[in-house]
Amino acid sequence: MGADVLLVERRRRIGRPAQCAGLVPAVAGRSIKGIKPDAVLSVVRTARSCFPDACEDTSGSPGLVLDRERFDNALAGEAAAAGARVLSGCRVEPRRSGAAAVTENGGRVNVKARVVIGADGPRSAAGMLIGSINSDFLKTIQVTLEHGHEGDETLFFFDRELEGGYGWLFPAGSLRRLGVGLPARSGIKLRQALEYFREKMSRRGFVSGRVKKITGGLVPAGGPLRCHEGGVILAGDAAGLANPVTGAGVMNALISGELAGEAAARAAGGEGDAALRDYADEIEAIFGRTLRQAVTARKRFMESWNLGDDELSAILRRAWPLSAEYRHAGRQEEEISRS
Length: 339
Prior knowledge:
This protein is α+β, with helices and mostly antiparallel strands and about 350 residues long.
């Protein structure tokens, strides 16, 4: 669109380490140009969710498990091929004036920009600049295990030892990704929760083999933030667009990132602040209601872990986006809001 673009990445190797389980809906493969076949580790055909009272198939929706390092590198490569300048291994200090100070190898470069897009994660410096700060988080930890054969099913486990969160098990080619996510304010230690869950999955025959790598990080869980002020706009986790219940954020980051780029180019091309206001309105229209519904659902199930298995499971099903109960509750709330 004719804009002069600078992409600045904090890590020296883009996409590494991958602080992500890498699961996206299969529709992402059709709607997002950056997903190449060599970045797809597994095609997921079914999802099984295990609540305290029973395990059940909760979704027939297919998905893809990504190699995030390859995927992120491919996106950066496409940006460079389109004309963007890419700087990696740099730290950015966004400013209200629309300028950014970039530190690279001890040097300092001042960059003037009409628009700064903050796509810098849950503790976004750009978000802090405009007072849009994620304050509620899930803390996560994940191991990649050798397994020996491929699978096509994702597993989600709700367990009283993982109070307020859940465990997951995803296929990743011949490997398995096993992890847990808990409220950041939880008194449960992440590594202990991970070992508990790994032992449980091992006893059930779901995992085997040695650990190849371990990763983790924070996921925003407080819902969408105000994503525009002046010449600054936010995208992805920086804008609080991860699902507060599941922690899923890749698809929302891809969608918001593409919209943010288009809005920034329009603003730089003469439309100014109007293009950025349009971006904020579009983000609200696409994500606002759904994510606020998830915030309400998360609060409901966070308060319910002292209930019996049947009651807790019923509430979890209404909070879990893959379940039929959740989708039904969402339709009911939408009908009420329209009436």
